[in-house]
Amino acid sequence: MSNETDLKESKVYSDWLKKSIDNEYFNYYNYSEFKNLKQIGRSVIRANWRNTDRFFVLKTFDSNNTILKEVVNEIKLQKRVDFHENILRFYGITIAEGTSILKYSLVLEYADNGTLRTYLNEHFNDLNWSDKYQLAFQLTSAIACLHECDIIHRDLKNIKLSDFGLSRKIEMSNTPSVDKSNLFGVIPYIDPNKFNDRNYELNRKSDVYSTGVLMWQISSGNSPFSDKDYDIPLVLSIVSGLREIIIDGTPIEYSKLYTECWKYQPNERPDMQDVVSTLKEIIFPKENEIDLLEEYEINSESSKGTIDLNIELLSNSDLYYFDHTEINSFDSQQSDLEIDLSDKSIKPRKNSFDSSKSVDITEINDYYDWLEKSIANKEIKLYEYSDFNNIQPIGKGSFGSVVRVILKNTDKFFALKSFNNDESTFCKVIEEIQNFLMREGSDIL
Fold first, then answer.
1. Based on the domain organization, do 102 and 131 belong to the same domain?
2. Phi-psi region of 400 (alpha: psi -120 to 50; beta: other; left: phi over 0)
3. What confidence tens digit (pLDDT) does each residue in 114-145 have?
4. Could you tell me which PROSITE patterns the record lists for this protein (predicted)?
5. Domain ends where: 283, 307, 324?
6. What is each CA distance from 352 to 257, 268, 337, 367, 398, in whole angstroms?
7. Three-state DSSP state, 289
8. CA 34 to CA 18: how far, in whole Å?
């Protein structure tokens, strides 16, 4: 590719970032507002924001063509799944000061309790099987969420687990800089088909394989093959069928599930949603399933401890055979905005509102254009009403109504807030969305 082409592409990504900041698709923070900066990894800085005690992570990128493309791609992917409690939050972007070239930094949630490996090393003896099930359930639910959004884990690695006993989080500082020299450190987690064929593209079933290994790790408290050298002979043994030994005392249903996940043939592994469903059947008695799920969601959201899975689940974005590739084009699955009220679809257009509540038409057009651009840029995810089931009314007022629903193929509850179809309400809805996007994920950001 010529230098001229590189410059043009770099400008496209740079312009996208500038436009997104101007249009408030995400927050922009002045670099000078971050205090107590500490390097905790290659291109990863821990910092406080302003005069608070809360830590955040600044993930820094150079502004060359390849890196800018990765930044834009990661932001788009992150925004799609930012609603899930087991995805590290994306708060916005900042630009490092005092350098001759632009250095963009993503502002991310900080997990201050280490990786899953360090957490298990320190606390495994305090965990009962209920705790282990909860860790496994959060892990599989997060990966299933990525898959539902047509993302595989090698494209977005910011997964966290909630710790139910500590008031700390589990940090990223143990994530090493990744290059060819430390590839061997993640051998047990990589789909063995990749070792057999360098051209093999990691996919959803590769995530399932890695998840099976992590589920074993949760059951044992140890890193896989901790008694062996991570070298070529281990690679050959794994390709030939070597797997870890089931730990004594492991419930049969649990060990059966993770051994299904790490089968060599991808088509013999379950889908991630099947893994979630099986785990749910193991954990939750059917007669109390809904009540227990609601209680579990509350406990999960109220927990302050977070475990970072970035290293164990293939955190190797720099490996020479990893590239940023989505499974399918998100655009092919989403078309026009549809708002569905009481099973009656309404496609809002600039002239389709109740005119009894007069609002400046220019303001309406601006809001409508902003909404369309936000959806087109994947800053707001569009759901079809048919994506939800178990619809239960929970509130009604002059603004419209609220129902509780479950997103299909998940155990996640959502609230759908429907609004009256008039110009004034439409403008208020857009303002509410914009305000939410500016403050989402934090009580201070």
1. no
2. left
3. 677 878 888 899 999 988 998 899 889 888 88
4. PROTEIN_KINASE_ATP, PROTEIN_KINASE_DOM
5. 283
6. 52, 51, 14, 14, 20
7. helix
8. 21
Torsions phi, psi for 246 (to 5 deg)? -60, 130
* Pair 390, 435 in one domain: yes
Tell me: do 89 and 125 sit in the same domain. Answer: no
Domain of residue 410, CATH code: 3.30.200.20
Q: Give the residue numbers spanning the domain of 425.
A: 379-440
Domain stops at, among 283, 303, 320: 283
| Beta carbons within 8 Å of 391's beta carbon, 6+ residues apart | 403, 404, 405, 416
Those residues of the chain that have pLDDT short of 70 are 1-8, 62-66, 98-102, 112-114, 153-185, 285-361, 393-400, 411, 420-423, 435-445
Residue closest to 313 by CA, chosen among 202, 423, 422, 395: 202
SS (H, E, C) 200-269: CCCCHHHHHHHHHHHHHHHHHCCCCCCCCCCCHHHHHHHHCCCCCCCCCCCCHHHHHHHHHHCCCCHHHC
The CA-based angle 380-382-383, given to 5 degrees, is 140
Determine the length of the chain: 445
Are residues 77 and 143 both part of a single domain? no
Q: Of 132, 186, 194, which is closest to residue 157 (Cα–Cα)?
A: 186
Residues 239 and 163 in one domain: yes
**Does 27 fall in a domain?**
yes
| Cβ contact 176:185 at 8 Å | yes
- If one counts the domains in the chain, the total is 3
CATH number of the domain bearing residue 141? 1.10.510.10
pTM: 0.60
Looking at the fold, whether 126 and 264 belong to one and the same domain comes out as yes
pLDDT at 277: 92
For residue 316, tell me if it sits in a domain.
Answer: no
- 312 inside domain: no
- Binding site listing: 417
Residues in binding site for ATP: 417
Distance CA 351, CA 349 (A): 5
Find tokens 């500490």 and name the residue: 38
Residues 278 and 141 in one domain: yes
Tell me the pairing of strands 160-163 and 305-308. Answer: antiparallel
